[in-house]
Amino acid sequence: MSDSTVLDDIGPHLRALRAERGLTLADLSETTGISVSTLSRLESGQRKATLELLLPISRAHQVSLDDLVTPHPVADPRVRTRGSHRSGVTTFPLSREPSAIAAFKQVIAASKEVRHPTPGVHDGYEWLYVLSGKLRLVLGPHDLVLVPGEVAEFDTRVPHWFGSADQGRVEYLTLFSKQGERMHVAVSTGGGRK
Hints:
The protein is 25% helix and 27% strand. The protein has helices spanning 3-8, 11-20, 25-32, 36-44, 51-61, 65-69; strands at 84-86, 89-93, 101-108, 125-132, 135-139, 142-146, 151-155, 160-164, 170-177.
């Protein structure tokens, strides 16, 4: 990779560095003496990075010029996880780092044994999407059967339980928030909300 390529691709790195420090373009402009419009064009790639621009930015961020222009490696984004098994359910974490919202794929194995609901409660908020099979969801006074493509979301402080509706295999995705934030899913139905 040539030096000019590195300098041409520096915009996103400059923007990320400024955001990490909680600075606005106006804040950085005041510190560096570089106009807001020049900084904005530099971050968007519309202005070529020059030594005259990069030196005051590196001083403002208290990083060396080398750290400012050296491309940072991007880690492999794939999440490689092993499932954990408990009571006939295999859970595959789909998010690598602990965060406000955790994603999982859950598989309920086919079984001849009929499982009886034992609802539980805990803090949080859950969203789920059925991939295959028939998922039985007992939620407070509701006893529902969800089929592939159906979605449910609920406060996990309401007594709830999941199981196979017909002893067959069930696969579903779930997003869980310990803080209790509601998930926001945008869906276009073509004719407005139903």
